[in-house]
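Input/output pair, single chain:
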Amino acid sequence: MMKVKKSNWLTLTLLLLAALIVFFGGASKIYAAGNNLDSDKDGIPNDVEKVYGTNPYAADSDGDGMNDKDDNNPVQLSNPIKESGSRDLQIRVKDARVEDNFDTNHSDLPDHLQITLLNKGKKSLSNIELYYTITDKKTGAEESYYQKLNSEIAAESELTLHFDNKIAKDHYSANMNGLYGSSTNGLIFDVYLHVKGYKTLNFKIEKDAGAAEVAD
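Output:
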């Protein structure tokens, strides 16, 4: 039987220890990097945003112009829409839902705030603002969000808006760490849609009690 000298055993042991140190050291760095992932670069790691109930994909969750890290109420703001115009907005809400979503082919989509609008007027509409509150029917907890939309609704045409964090035309951010993604109680969405020069359009959407709305 081949014998290995003591000095060779020592060398092999040291090499093995060095390899283990490199491996586990690298693994710990990868783990740490994963834990510190900050998708929206707001200074709050994604896993901490989940605890805080803020949106990891938007540095300003509620849209008040303040970074979440500096905001004492990162998911609450008063309605910033101000309008003195008296003209009726020539828009009809054809569909508004926060569950049982579907696309233009009627294929199922993950649950999210989805609004289909019909422009009944002869002019296209742009510079759209949206403010909405989410209220928990059982606890009374409330969140509020504001967004300026870069979508345009052509004259006598429909447009569907999706608030699902996808990077695509007519898709916008949504806080799935908030009440919508965490509460199993019924929720009320109170939505205010505004185009400059027109009266604000207000409508409500209700979510039934049940599982919190995460991707199906």
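Residues 27-33 have pLDDT under 50 and may be disordered. Strands lie at 91-97, 113-119, 128-136, 142-149, 158-163, 171-172, 187-195, 201-207.
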